[in-house]
Amino acid sequence: GAGVSQSPRYKVAKRGQDVALRCDPISGHVSLFWYQQALGQGPEFLTYFQNEAQLDKSGLPSDRFFAERPEGSVSTLKIQRTQQEDSAVYLCASSRRGGSTEAFFGQGTRLTVV
Amino acid sequence: DAKTTQPPSMDCAEGRAANLPCNHSTISGNEYVYWYRQIHSQGPQYIIHGLKNNETNEMASLIITEDRKSSTLILPHATLRDTAVYYCIVRVLKNAGNNRKLIWGLGTSLAVNP
Question: Which residue of A has its CA nearest to B43?
Answer without folding.
Answer: A107
